[in-house]
Amino acid sequence: MSDFVIETPPVVGLPVDGNDAKFPVRRVYCIGRNYAAHAVEMGHDPDREPPFFFQKNPDNLDPSLEFPYPVHSEDVHHEAEIAVMLKSGGTDIPVESALDHVYGYALSLDMTRRDLQGVAKKMGRPWEIGKAFERSAPVGPIHPVEKVGHPSEGAITLHVNGELRQEGDLNQMIWKVPEMIAYLSDYFELAPGDVILSGTPSGVGPVSRGDTMKLAVDGLGEISVKVV
């Protein structure tokens, strides 16, 4: 007999490069405005203010590399990112040992219903209606640390239909990966399966049905995502 009164939801599992087993997702934390140029284009001061985070849902992460254009929006934007996958966690993690908790890295997109997010901002409401909708985070295969190390610099680019839209370097992150992990662990108990989306460079913009987005990061390869 089941221990639950309804059917248990499936665990979200993401593909790992070179491994038939999958990475199970527990939580998804997303840092906002983590590249100075993106902060400026969104109308904010690029100085190093304390980081802030919002969340997506585990099943928003989608490895199918197809992005269904969502309902109730006419202004859906791409945000090119890398995702950080944790193999362990805890609280009050020191910056110096934070990278010991990382399993690997993947290319990802934080797709955003910008019009709905804009309304939420004006009304002082949470962002989830603009950020945490179905399949809002296309994600590529996870590259384990043993294969790629800890990428801290290198080009990150996004092309839409062959046109360069976003271009930056991982070293332009205001808050680096170890700092994000340490900061989050001061407020949450991190655990295996947690995922951190690490922010996007400038150049975010709209997509339409039929578009193809190509995200590339030095050392992590590239992915192509079709808007359907």
Automatic annotation (TrEMBL):
Keywords: Hydrolase, Metal-binding. Transmembrane segments: none annotated. One of its GO terms (molecular function) is acetylpyruvate hydrolase activity. It comes from Thalassococcus profundi. Residues 28-228 form the Fumarylacetoacetase-like C-terminal domain. The keyword DNA repair does not apply. Pfam families: FAA_hydrolase (PF01557). This is FAA hydrolase family protein. The keyword Hydrolase applies.
